[in-house]
Design goal:
This protein is mostly helical and about 350 residues long. Helices cover about 65% and strands about 5% of the residues. It contains 15 helices and three strands. The relative contact order is 0.13.
Length: about 350
């Protein structure tokens, strides 16, 4: 076997191995997600977390430039050397694929959070209605506590860096109930590529190679606590978007700070109202009338922000990411973000807000 064939063959081996691994979530949970991965993540966050800017964004930018330059240099000789060029591309993909999975993405194959937390999967319309009404009451109460006026929207009085540090309080409180939500070594940063992220329609992302939680600093600030908590959940090895929405919500509402609680409760309420809008328009309207006008102004603030950046770019990237999620064990694709409602409803069946 020639050396130039080794990495392309290894890529085929990796793809095949992952198809088999998907049938053994307990194995991944024990040996990777709660075994090897926490050590890798802690090392990465210790190294990169102290650097004030995003190393991951810089690495991505350099790699993209190098790849484009490589294709540009090969454009004239591609047909003559297509076999060698194809092997080089496959070799690059093989290394990228290996690092992506060993550094983070094997978590896509871990045990579901439903099982780890002993939470039921199914719920009825009656369950959702009770939960939504309780959620509205709680969100209204936190909103009144902050604004003293039900018609004023909430303005978060903290910077993004302050939010990142203050998120640790919520995770500390959450970990007293569930030790597997323990978070160590903060590494959360404002993304250098926030403008492209905005056009793509994303509030943040985790860089799997540096384990930095990247947050879009352009979006409305009241969203920042829950969005950054979501990305921090990814850092802890939870790959499912619905699970990270749930964990981000819990870490926000467990925070001692009312602004953080508001971020979490208003985030959850927005999804529940959207759920009712799809299920029953009449019930949705009845519920909406009981929500403080100030909360609705925050929702409108977010809607106006994202609307001004809507473009075919967003549609294209959402389609790509939708298929990426489906390939990686999340059959609902982009819709999986909203699937955390069932986690919340069933979690609070036996708990108070």
């Amino acid at each position: 076997m020639k050396p130039k064939h080794i990495l392309p063959i290894f890529l085929v081996f990796q793809i095949t191995a992952l198809q088999i691994i998907a049938f053994f979530p307990e194995f991944i949970e024990h040996y990777y997600s709660t075994g090897l991965y926490p050590k890798i993540a802690l090392f990465s966050r210790t190294v990169f977390g102290r650097i004030p800017f995003s190393i991951g964004d810089i690495i991505y930018s350099i790699v993209i430039v190098m790849v484009l330059r490589w294709f540009w240099n090969k454009r004239k000789t591609w047909k003559l050397q297509w076999k060698d060029n194809t092997l080089q591309v496959l070799s690059f993909l093989s290394v990228f694929y290996f690092l992506f999975h060993i550094l983070w993405a094997l978590n896509y194959y871990r045990q579901p959070l439903f099982e780890k937390m002993a939470i039921e999967r199914e719920y009825s319309d009656a369950d959702l209605l009770v939960f939504t009404k309780n959620l509205i009451a709680k969100t209204n109460a936190i909103h009144s506590q902050i604004t003293k006026n039900d018609s004023l929207k909430v303005a978060l009085p903290y910077s993004h860096n302050q939010v990142f540090t203050m998120n640790l309080n919520g995770y500390k409180n959450l970990a007293t109930d569930y030790s597997f939500f323990t978070y160590e070594k903060l590494s959360a940063k404002k993304s250098i590529i926030s403008l492209p992220l905005t056009y793509m329609g994303f509030g943040g992302y985790l860089n799997p190679f540096t384990n930095e939680a990247q947050v879009n600093y352009m979006m409305p600030m009241y969203n920042s606590p829950t969005t950054s908590c979501h990305e921090m959940a990814h850092q802890m090895g939870f790959a499912s978007e619905s699970e990270c929405n749930f964990i981000g919500f819990l870490a926000s509402v467990k925070n001692d700070n009312p602004y953080f609680q508001y971020s979490g409760y208003s985030f959850a309420l927005h999804y529940c109202l959207g759920n009712w809008r799809a299920r029953d328009e009449k019930v949705f309207q009845q519920l909406l009338e009981t929500v403080h006008p100030g909360i609705l102004k925050n929702y409108q603030e977010s809607e106006d922000f994202w609307k001004q950046y809507q473009s075919p770019i967003e549609t294209g990237f959402h389609l790509i990411y939708d298929n990426f999620l489906k390939i990686n064990q999340q059959k609902d694709g982009m819709e999986s973000y909203s699937k955390f409602v069932n986690l919340m409803v069933n979690y609070y069946k036996e708990k108070e807000f």
